[in-house]
Amino acid sequence: MADTKDELAGVVDLFGGLARDELEQALVELAFKQGKDVEREAFGAEIERAVADYYLVETEYDAESDDDAAETLLVAGPVAFPTVPENGEDLPHILDVPDRELDREGLGEAVAERLAEEARTIAAAGDAERAQELLDVSYDLEAWAPVEADEVRETLDRAFE
Prior knowledge:
Elements: H1 5-15, E1 18-19, H2 20-33, H3 44-52, E2 56-62, E3 70-76, H4 91-94, H5 104-125, H6 128-144, H7 150-157
Antiparallel strand pairs: 1-3, 2-3
Helix pairs in contact: 5-6, 5-7, 6-7
Pfam families: DUF7109 (PF23421)
């Protein structure tokens, strides 16, 4: 089982991106390989925390299939240092996950928009602690994707006033 947010990102990174149910199944398989007994539902809160903290980010992926339905995928986010957990290297041989091509530039822009929106909310609330966390995310984001986050930092400066 993945014990840290970086390990969650490592599991996702093995595949490039996973749907939430695929990630949960991967974590169940991983726990089994590690001799741990866990319920699939136990991973939901862990995944949500990783998304909230930018270790994982969500993106819409248009599958080229008959139903043309977009699915939401999780990918390793800008603050993650993806780390493959114990026995994680076996997961691509266990799970049947299709190959997916992701638009990294579009993903970076979407994360920048999410960060800007959250920065406005945090600045208005004057939450200096979360503003500091988001400030760090803004620098990580620029290293992770070809986007600028100067405006986000300017917005966050208001939370420190």
